[in-house]
Structures are given as structure tokens and as C-alpha cells.
Amino acid sequence: MYKLLLCLRYLRTRYIALASILSVMLGVATMIVVNSVMSGFATEMQNRIHGILSDVVLEVRNLSGVPDAPWHMEQIRRVAGDSIEGMTATVVVPGMLNFRYADQWITRQVQIIGIDESTQSQVSDFSRYLQHPENREKMSFELRDGGYDTRDHQGGPEAQQRPQMRKAGWDHRRMVTELQAFNRTMSEGPALPRQPPGGPSAQGDMEDAGSVAQPPSAVRSSLTQPGAAVPQVGTKAPDQPSLPSGRASSPRSAPDGAPPGDGGGNALRSEDAMRDATPPDLADPFASVRPRSPEPVFNPAKQQHTGAVLGIVMASFRRPGGEESFLVVPGDDVKLTFPTAGTPPKIAYGDFTIVDFYECKMAEYDSSFVFVPIRELQEMRGMIDPGVIDPKTQKPMGMFNSIQIKLKPGADGNEVRDKLAATFSRELYVAQTWRDKQGALLAAVQMETAILNVLLFLIIAVSGFGILAIFFMIVVEKTRDIGVLKSLGASGVGIMGIFLSYGLSLGLVGSGVGLALGLVIVHHVNDLAVLLGKITGKPVFDPSIYYFYRIPTIVDPWTITWIVAGAIGIAVLASVLPALRAALLRPVEALRYE
Amino acid sequence: MNDELARMFAQPSGTFRPLSFSRKNVLRRDATASEDGGPHFGIPPDEPLESDEGNSPDAQADRSETCPSGGAPVPIDPVPFSRPAERCVDRPEEHQLEAIGLAKSYRKASVEIPVLKGVNLDVRCGEFLAIVGQSGSGKSTLLHLLGTLDAPDDGSVFFEGRRIDNLPGIERDRLRNQRFGMIFQFYHLLPELTTLENVLAPLMIGKSVLGFLRARGTCRAAATRLLDLVGLSHRLKHRPRELSGGEMQRAAIARALVAGPQLLLADEPTGNLDRSTGREILELLCSLNRQQKLTIVMVTHDHAIADRADRVVCLVDGRIKGA
User: Fold this and answer.
1) What H or E segment, with its residue span, contains residue A88?
2) Do B205 and A5 touch (CB under 8 A)?
3) Exposure check for chain A: N or C terminus, fewer CB within 10 A?
4) Could you report the per-residue pLDDT of A100-124, keeping only the tens digit for each?
5) Is residue A507 part of a domain?
6) Among candidates A556, A505, A552, A582, which has minimal Cα distance to A17?
7) How much is the mean pLDDT over chain A?
8) Which residues on chain B place their C-beta less than 8 Å from a C-beta of chain A?
9) Which DSSP category does A288 fall into?
């Protein structure tokens, strides 16, 4: 009883002990906050990283790809069929994205990924990150009329408005077309020859071919006509390239118009086929005098190029307040340049229309991935193998260079990866899990957490030394009292108990207050960040740098238990030495001390 | 209810049992469990124990220690001091404390300074013995040896016939807690505790947390009564630093008596007090000795104070001289 009483009295009367309580408290609070925020970040990041990647990827080292994806999938199923939920073949090539913004060409270095929009969503959460609600339901490479999200649907209440997205879609496309046409008419339009009546017919053709999902029904203004004519004469239009060949690849934009199937192995493209299928009587009557007359006229107001889904970061930038400004929106056209599959690879480019953005919040992905339909990409790159006919579609099968694999829940990705690596020759194939792809990043975060924990625990350990020093002082100060207690019959163990329970209560109080403080800080970490930002004038948490609007936190009860137990343990351990000293003090010596 | 309380009181003294002494320690005289008992002004048993209650030998031992009247009904005393320590009264010749050939020296560097060179001392039951000696003559050392606060280099100390200087630490702690009361020249109250808590300290030390909490009311009552006795009833909540020297010493006496000891060891109890306050303290000790037949061993350098004692011995040159 005297132990508790004295321990409490010492706690109340020795204000120096408050210093050690404070240090324990701060240590515990900091550790809790840091751990919660770090694990919040790590979890959020893993979700983001994983979101757009499939669980396991089997890549072909050769960029030109290999034929016969079904055979590969069969092999994969054979070795790891139990763990596999879904697979899809893709084509991944490095490339260059160009688009026009404010009279300048903007170039981005990108990864072009050809996907099958019907199966892609089976292997990753790709479609969840799209900006059009219908695309999130069912992904399509066709431009939507409108209705794109005007704010980040994943952002929660803090998400900024994106007013520029309100017009995105066909409305935007028409408006831009008209504006350009108007501009051109104003500047040079009158000097140009009017468009012959070939355009509309070709346009109809295109619609028949089904490349335009929702033909605009709006009545076009009279200005559209001259606008549509302009590309015909080869003037470089800002958004819509002047080439009537539309989706055709650039090497074939020469005036003489290469016949379909040329280009040394370049595969047929449906546009070429379509153009060829255009009945001769609908062709331009002035074909003989106009070099590119056989080409059907591409009407940007009614037609789109092949759809492309861009990462939102490459199309936008953030203003200091965190508000996003878009350089391009769905409906605008872009150019993609990429190597062909030939030997040696050559440069090819094609025109694409942005049909949507994706935002997986992983800046690296959001700024580098461009998704396009796999078939079109295969055709443009010459990856159609005429020798292999797909039994289902009766068409020549395309080559692929990557298979995305989704695993069943609970399956071990590393195991599947190892099996694949053992099955497929390492010289030709690479099997990777999503973690491997971002291994460095994940390892860095993990190591950061570990190092921070060690450092912070050292802080608590330092506070333990503070307790040690303070306790030694108290023991020296209380030498006489210890002697008195012993003369009253207190045992050494009892005396030790006083100081051990003193240390324990310091630890308990310190870590208890620290725990409360830590949890409060974690709960209000965003408010605190804002407040700190206001005080210092610099935003602490800049959503334009991180992938989140709010600082994510995850409070793990186990971690907290360990932290608190560790802190209390350190406090008790630090008091062992002074307590031992007090216990071993001989009462006579203590009493003689005056 | 009262029985229960009485049992609780019995607990502190009951834990120290002569039976627990090993046989080899019993050199001089045999003493049985039932033989020892002491003055009980610390926590007097408010109610006698019923005879039908103690069948086990343990309970018997407890009772005999706690209740000197041997089970006879003892009325609640308004003044606790009026109850004599019957054992000592019965046999005044009994040696309560005995030191044989005590030797102690302190070592400073390589020089050995002998302080006690074979002290033989007898203290009888109910005696007020004064040990007089010059400063540095080893009085305090002797007192510490008698009170088992220190171990002698040679010789032995007997308490009620049992050797106590070589007991294991835990037994000595219990002895100090329950059989010995100690007061010091510098009072040595714990500054963090109030007067009342200081007086309660030995009871807290002697009991477990739960035991103390259960008997808290009675312990408090006993401590309050003792403080009332020493004239400090108005100072219960004061801290030692708010008391005068005489008050502190009186509080220290109350603390020494609260656990109901048989022997009071006083180390220059008046040494730090002015003459009249010192006299008051001395009067208090004398009345304790007379009325309670409490055995007191007091060391002092002041012959005038020593003269109040029943017997005075001189400590000269590390040996006892004269009677």
C-alpha cells in the first residue's frame, strides 16, 4: 500500500517526472500518427498501384510480339489454372503522344496499351477509374455524347470541380470543329475553293461502317461546310489532321495514296478497306484533278478516329489551389507515334480521338498510359499474322506482347509467377506480379516505415534514459526516506516496487496521454495539415503532389498495442536500475546521510 | 463484524511468528509461540476474540500474540496507555533484548576503524535503558545493530531469546515492522505524506494492499488515537514541513508505536530539540514506559536526559562501562 501511496505522491510532487511523461507521450503520439499515416499511404498506394495493373503479367521481351494468344493462355491455365480467374492479351508499346493546345504541339512520352475493352475489366479495375459513368459500367472506345464527370468521382467531398469536363464529348468536338472552321474562314477561308459535294457521301459511308456510335443529330451551322472542306486541301488543322485518310498511319499520307496492304507487311486496316469499298460513283468527280480525291472525307464534327483513353495527368495540370485545368478533353484528337512491328521497327503514327480519361491516382500511371483498342493497334503496327486465322472470328489473328492475368482471391501471385517463369523460356518471356512492377516503390515505402519506426522508437528509448536519469536523481534525493522505510520494516523488494510502479505509472500516464493525443491527431490530421499550412503559408499536404485529396490514415490496433506496450516497457526498464539501487541501499547508510 | 476486525488486527503481528525462527537460532532460551505478546496500543483489539473461534494452532498463535489478555474480554480503553504490557510486568527479570560480544568496525580505504569492540548488553522487559556515550562512540551503530538495521562483524543479538542478527532479510524486515519501534534524532518523517499517513506507514508496510484497504478504517482510527495521545490530533492533514520539531518527533513516536511494538529504540530523540520540548518528549517516553511497560532503549550524549531512565550504561571506547 505504501508503495502505491508513495508512488502516487511522488508522481504528484516530482514535477521533473512530468518531463519524462511528456517525452514518453510525445514519442507515443508521434509513433501512432506516423504509423497511421504511413500505413494509410501505403495501403492507398498499393490499391492505386494494383488498381490498373493485373495481378500477374506475362510479357514478351520482343516488342513485336508473338502470335497465338489462345495457345499461351492455354499453357498458362495448364500450369496454374487453379489460381487464375481471368486473362486477356494486350499489346504494350512505348510511344509518343502529341496534341495541340493553344497553337502549340505538346508531346508526352507514353506507354501505349492495346486492350480488348470487353475483357480488360475482367483482369483489373481499369474501368473503375474512367470518367464517364457509362464507361465505368461498360467500357467502350466510342466517344460519348456528354455526361462526363465534372468532379473526381473517387475524391470524396473534397474533390475539386472540373468545369471543363462539362462540355466534353461530342458537343465539344462539334464546337471545336466549328470554331476552327470559323477561324479559318475568317483568316483564309474565302480564298480557298469550296468543298465539292464528295464529303457528305463519304461521311455517310463512315457512319454506315459503324465507327460513329452516336451520330450527332444537331443541325450544323452553315459554317461547318467550309470547315469540313479545309482538310481537303491539306491545311494543317489544329486538332483534326488534314489527312483525309483519317486513321491511316502517317507513312501513307503521301498524296499518291498507297494502295491497301502495302508497306512491306503492314497489315490491312479497316479504313483502307472501307475506302476501297467506297463505290466509284460516289467518288469525287474531280478526282482526276485533285490529288487526294479518292480518300473519303473525314468529318470531324460527325466522326471520330479510333478511341483512346488517356491518363488524366497527361491531359491536365493542376493550378496551385489543386484545381485541374485540362489541356484536352474527351472529343479532342491526338496523335500517337509508335514503332511498328517490322524488322527493323519503323515509326508509325495514327490519329486518335480521346474518348475518356482514366485516373487511378497513381501519377506514374496516370501520366504515361494510353489505352487504345488492341485490334487497331495491331493493325497499325503490322501485328496481324495473316497465316494464323482465329477460328472464332475467321480473321487473321493479331500478335500480342503481354498477357494480363487476374488471380482468384487468395491465390499467391509469386507462386504463379514462378510457375510461369518455369514454363515459358526466360529468354523470350518475363513473368511479373504487380508488386514486382512497382517493387522499388513498395520496398521504399516499407523501408521508410521501418526506419521511421526505429527512429521514433529510439525517441521513446531516449525518453527512457530521461526517466533513468530522473529516477536516479529521485533515488539519491530520497535516500533518507528509503532508509526510514527500511527501518520501518519495508523490504528491498518493496522499495524496488515503489520505483518500478513509479516507472510503470509514468509509462502508463505518458503512453495513455500519448495514445489519446495520437488518436486525436490522426483523426484531425487533415484539419491540422490545413491549419499548419495556413500558419506557415505553405500547404503541408498538397493534393497535386500526392495521389489523394485527404491524408489517408489507417489505425491498426495491433500496432498501437505494440507501441503502447513498448513505451510502458521502456519506462519500466529504465526504472529498474534506480529501483535496484534503492533496494540495495543499506538502511544504515541511508539514515546516516544527513 | 467485530470478530472480523479483530482478526484483521491480528494479522500484522500474526505474520511474525516465533515458529518461523529456525531451531538453531534458539540458543539461549526456548520460547513458545504463546509466550510472547506485547503492549498493544497501536491497534488494540476492540473486541476480545471468542474462544470458540480459534481451533487451528495458527489462530491460536495469532490470538495469543494479538491479545495479551489471552482471550479474556478486554473492554475498549478510552486511554490505550492504561493497559499494561502484561508479559513484561509478569516477568520483569526476562531479558527482552540481549547483545553478546557485538563488534563492528568501519573501513575507510585501508584503515579499519573499530567502533564497537565487544559490547555485552541486557535489556529487560519494561526497562527504560539509556546508553550514554560521546559523539562518535558508536551509540548509533549499537542501536542500529540492536534494531537489525545493520549486521555486526562479530557477536550476536537476541530478541526474546532468539537470535535475530543473522535472520534472513525478510524476517528482519518483519521484526522491525512489528516488534521494534524506532525514533531518530532528525525525526525522519516522509515529507510527501501527511502526519496521519506517516503514522499509518508501518501498517501499510505490514499489510498487503488489499489487507490495508479492508482494515483501513480501523488502522486510521488507531493512528488517529495515537496522534491524539501525542497531542497532534489537530495536525492530521499537515505535512511534516508544516510541523515544529517537537511535533515532528511526537509524530515519529506515534509512528513507532502504531504497529504495537514491544521495543522502542530511540536514537537521541531530544538531540535536535530545545530543552523544554526535549523534556516533553522525554516525559512522553517515560509515561509510555511506565504506563505501557514499553521497553525503551535510548541513546544520548546528554547525561541529564539519561538520568530519567531506569538504568544508564556508558559506551566508552567501544565497550559498555558501568551500569
Assistant:
1) strand A84-101
2) no
3) C
4) 888 888 898 999 999 888 888 778 8
5) yes
6) A505
7) 77
8) 140-141, 144, 147, 149-150, 169-170, 173-178, 182, 184, 186, 188-193, 197, 201-202, 204-209, 212-213, 255, 259
9) T
**Can you say whether residue A537 is alpha, beta or left, with left for phi > 0 and alpha for psi between -120 and 50 degrees?**
left
* Pairing status of strand A384-389 against strand A316-318: unpaired
Give the range of the structural domain holding residue A544, as residue numbers without chain letter: 2-47+440-592
Nearest-Cα distance to chain A for B138, in Å, is 12
Scanning every residue of chain A, which has its alpha carbon at the shortest distance from the alpha carbon of B142? A588
Mark yes or no for CB contact B192/A4 under 8 Å. no
- State residue B34's pLDDT score: 38
The C-alpha cell 467550309 sits at A226
Is residue A407 situated within a structural domain?
no
Sheet with B162-163: list strands edge to edge: B111-124, B95-108, B154-159, B162-163
Which of A13, A480, A488 is facing B201, going by the closest CB pair?
Answer: A488
Which residue would you say has higher pLDDT here, A28 or A9?
A28
Distance from CA of B157 to the nearest CA of A (A): 17
Residue A208 covered by a domain: no
* Partner residue facing A2 (CB), from B178, B182, B204: B204
Q: How far apart are CA B261 and CA B256, in angstroms?
A: 8
Cell numbers 521514433: residue: A456
CB B144 within 8 Å of CB A589: no
- In this complex, the residue of B186, B192, B205 whose CB is nearest that of residue A9 is B192
All domains of chain B, ordered by start, with CATH? Answer: 2-80 (no CATH), 95-321 (3.40.50.300)
Please give the helix or strand (H or E) that residue A121 lies within, else none: helix A120-123
pLDDT at position A484 over 50? yes
CA atoms of A341 and A93, how far apart (whole Å): 10
What's the pTM value of the predicted model, to 2 decimals? 0.64
Long-range CB contacts for residues A423-426, cutoff 8 Å, separation at least 24: A423/A75, A423/A76, A423/A79, A424/A58, A424/A75
Residue A252: pLDDT band (50, 70, 90) is very low
Q: Does A15 touch chain B (CB under 8 A)?
A: no
Report the alpha-carbon distance of residue A565 to residue B222 in Å, rounded: 42
Cell, residue A489: 520494516
Chain B residues lying within 8 Å of A594, measured CB to CB: 186
Looking at the predicted structure, is the pLDDT value of residue A261 above 70? no
| Residues of B in Cβ contact (< 8 Å) with A488 | 176-177, 182, 201-202, 205, 255
> How far is A491 from chain B, CA to nearest CA, in Å?
6
Sign of the torsion angle spanned by Cα atoms B226, B230, B233, B235: negative
Residue A518: the pLDDT is 93
Closest approach of chain B CAs to the CA of A481, in angstroms?
6
**Type and span of the H or E element at A224:** helix A224-229
Question: Do the Cβ atoms of B202 and A489 come within 8 Å?
Answer: yes
Run of H or E including B278: helix B275-292
* Residue among B147, B177, B192 whose CB faces A10 most closely: B192
B156: which strand partners? B100
CB A241 within 8 A of CB A234: no
Q: Judge if the upstream peptide bond of residue A344 is cis by omega within 30 degrees of 0.
A: yes
Which of A4, A484, A491 minimises the CB distance to B190?
Answer: A484
Is residue A523 in a domain? Answer: yes
Separation of alpha carbons B172 and B165, rounded Å: 8
Total number of domains in chain A: 1
